[in-house]
Design brief:
about 230 residues; alpha+beta; 3-stranded antiparallel beta sheet; about 15% strand
Length: about 230
């Protein structure tokens, strides 16, 4: 069994006729863009375009205006989250509607025996089954009905901290690529401010104490992360 967890954002339905302030990856609307250190400049551009897609950007809508509009936001958000994949079966559980990458750390709630809110329509859900987790693409009453009936991934509960740690490292790697992208565009201090804002709003490089997250009632002592 090979399970992976990746930070992803949903590709928006960008206006194909609208001019772009920078090159962006050509990707199908509502597909998933994985964020890590291997992202190309065009993929980074697509990520920032997804951030800007939900806000108003003043004319002429060039790089400076887009970044200024992003920096003026109280908090940046983007559709996405963490995608769980079973490589052996090809099964994937993706974030539901209205889930945001900004809440990716909520997955630690599963370490305490709870299911984080992972979106709706479909509504992913984490079911705790003793020392295993069953992650449903559409949980609750829809587990066995409709388009996503029966779609789930099982994993040992003790495996989740390592998966979350891997997703965290991918995001940290992406921040480094993002910083290089802003330099390539010549954004100067605007670019540095954008990187800091994205880092803050998506809780990327902040300490991630998975060891303490495992210290919860009902977590088997033998399965706790060793400090």
């Amino acid at each position: 069994m090979v399970i992976t967890m990746r930070a992803v954002v949903e590709v928006p339905a960008l206006d194909a006729e609208a001019p772009r302030p920078w090159p962006v990856e050509s990707a199908a609307p509502f597909s998933w863009l994985a964020l890590d250190a291997s992202c190309s400049e065009e993929q980074v551009g697509l990520f920032v375009a997804a951030l800007a897609d939900r806000i108003d950007v003043p004319e002429p809508g060039g790089p400076d205006e887009v970044v200024d509009a992003l920096l003026a936001e109280e908090m940046l958000v983007v559709a996405g989250g963490l995608q769980l994949c079973d490589i052996d079966t090809g099964t994937a559980v993706v974030p539901g509607c209205c889930a945001g990458l900004e809440d990716w750390r909520d997955w630690t709630e599963a370490l305490a025996g709870d299911s984080p809110w992972l979106g709706h329509d479909p509504g992913p859900e984490v079911e705790v089954l003793g020392d295993h987790l069953r992650v449903w693409q559409d949980g609750g009453s829809n587990r066995h009905h409709g388009r996503w009936a029966g779609v789930h991934i099982d994993l040992p509960r003790v495996a989740l901290p390592a998966l979350l740690g891997s997703a965290h490292r991918d995001l940290v790697g992406f921040i480094a690529v993002l910083a290089g992208w802003t330099e390539q565009l010549g954004l100067g201090s605007r670019g540095s401010a954008l990187v800091r804002t994205i880092d803050r709003d998506f809780a990327i490089t902040a300490p991630f104490d998975l060891a303490n997250a495992c210290e919860a009632p009902g977590w088997p002592v033998g399965d706790r992360l060793r400090r």
